[in-house]
Design brief:
Elements: H1 2-16, H2 22-30, H3 36-44, H4 52-59, H5 64-71, H6 74-77, H7 80-97, H8 106-120, H9 128-134, H10 142-167, H11 172-181, H12 187-194, H13 198-210, E1 214-215, E2 218-219, H14 221-242, H15 246-266
Antiparallel strand pairs: 1-2
Helix pairs in contact: 1-10, 1-15, 2-7, 3-5, 3-7, 4-5, 7-10, 8-10, 8-14, 8-15, 9-10, 10-14, 11-13
Pfam families: HTH_67
InterPro entries: HTH_67 (IPR054058)
Protein name: SalK
Length: 273
């Protein structure tokens, strides 16, 4: 399970950069989608003309009011297929800027990642955001096939994570605050990107303290146990994809993926614009 998680984490920058790169912002803006509208529309376009309520449900931890403001009218500006085309074009531009297409072992990394993604496609039930992306055609270009495969694995894992949160009675804002309490991601970034009002953030923090999950602004021992349980369970729910590779395949992918993730980071593709 740990090797499978390492394989996912080391390659995840190849997908995650799409939320930060200027190539994406420019292409969305050209379609009339600026700011958060570009993010929500581009990630949900696989659904077709997704309603704000569908985005709120599947994205899970964003302020619903902000989602409604961003999504309402987005599909009047441009149809979903044009948004998808813009997203893939931006991903290709950014990854080529990072030199992903020139890295050795691209073919092997792609083969392993695609095999895992195709195995995940046999387990779409209960994973709506993943299923929508799994229905999209595979791109022709190798770099884009790699991005698509890692996107599938990211959404496969993400849907499983939401299921774990729901089963443990952890709502969207609660999950965000517990994540912030780990110190892994700056609190200011999480507050700005998810756009919850300060009073709701503070009120939910107090509720989590009452549940015994926070000690001040940090995780309590009970909170740490819950976070570890949710992460471990998320890892287990992601295993149907990586079981197809076997232990040796997961180890090989984890080994080969590091230069790809590092290239994305060193090219500045994960920096806030």
């Amino acid at each position: 399970m740990q090797t499978a998680r390492a394989a996912w984490r080391r390659l995840e920058p190849v997908h995650g950069m799409i939320y930060f790169v200027p190539e994406a912002r420019r292409r969305y803006a050209d379609l009339g989608l600026s700011g958060r509208a570009g993010y929500f529309a581009s990630r949900s376009a696989a659904f077709g003309r997704a309603s704000a309520e569908l985005v709120i449900s599947t994205f899970y931890n964003f302020n619903p009011d902000v989602v409604r403001q961003a999504v309402d009218g987005a599909w009047d500006a441009t149809p979903p297929q044009q948004v998808l085309d813009a997203r893939y074009a931006a991903a290709g531009e950014a990854l080529r800027r990072a030199g992903i297409h020139e890295l050795p072992n691209l073919d092997e990394v792609l083969a392993l990642t695609r095999r895992a993604a195709e195995a995940a496609c046999e387990h779409t039930q209960g994973r709506p955001l993943f299923a929508a992306h799994a229905a999209l055609p595979w791109p022709e270009e190798a770099v884009l096939r790699l991005w698509h495969a890692q996107t599938l694995l990211r959404e496969f894992r993400g849907d499983g994570h939401v299921a774990c949160l729901l089963s443990e009675g952890v709502g969207g804002l609660e999950a965000l605050i517990l994540h912030a309490a780990t110190g892994e991601v700056p609190v200011d970034f999480l507050k700005a990107s998810r756009a919850w009002p300060e009073e709701e953030w503070a009120g939910t923090q107090e509720h989590l303290r009452e549940r015994g999950l926070l000690d001040g602004d940090s995780l309590s021992p009970e909170g740490e146990l819950l976070r570890r349980h949710i992460e471990d369970r998320t890892d287990r729910l992601a295993l149907p994809a990586y079981t197809a590779l076997g232990d040796a395949g997961c180890e090989r992918l984890a080994e080969l993926a590091s230069p790809f993730g590092r290239a994305v980071v060193e090219a500045g593709l994960l920096e806030l614009g």
